[in-house]
Design goal:
Layout (H helix, E strand, L loop, with lengths): L2 E7 L8 H7 L7 E8 L3 H8 L2 H6 L2 E8 L5 H12 L7 E8 L7 E9 L2
Parallel strand pairs: 1-4, 3-4
Antiparallel strand pairs: 2-5, 3-5
């Protein structure tokens, strides 16, 4: 059964819960990842263009960290995650979170994806 956790972080620097990252890396196999800063409307197409769909379907664990302006509408991220979850196994553990960053323009998303257990 899929476990999906959402974490929130402040803009006081990158404050990623390393336990979540370490848990992703306990899965045996290859690790893949990608990061980019894109316009919010390009997030879906950029992820699907740069992340192997087979990797997403075969992953045992996926961690995604989003950086965004504090005024960015969080509903756009939940819409993206709803679509993203359709492309992964129901057995995959997913942890995603967001970091607010006042230096990012309102229309940009900074994302980092780690896919483990391939």
């Amino acid at each position: 059964m899929r476990r999906v956790d959402c974490k929130n972080y402040s803009d006081s620097g990158i404050n990623i819960n390393m336990i979540d990252i370490c848990n992703m890396l306990t899965y045996n196999g290859r690790v893949s990842g990608y990061s980019n800063i894109v316009k919010s409307e390009d997030l879906r197409s950029d992820v699907l263009k740069n992340i192997n769909i087979d990797d997403m379907m075969n992953a045992k664990g996926i961690s995604i960290i989003f950086g965004m302006h504090p005024d960015f509408p969080f509903s756009k991220l939940t819409d993206f995650m709803d679509e993203f979850l359709k492309h992964i196994s129901s057995e995959c553990e997913v942890v995603f979170g967001n970091i607010t960053d006042t230096n990012l323009p309102l229309n940009k998303i900074d994302y980092k994806i780690i896919i483990a257990g391939l």
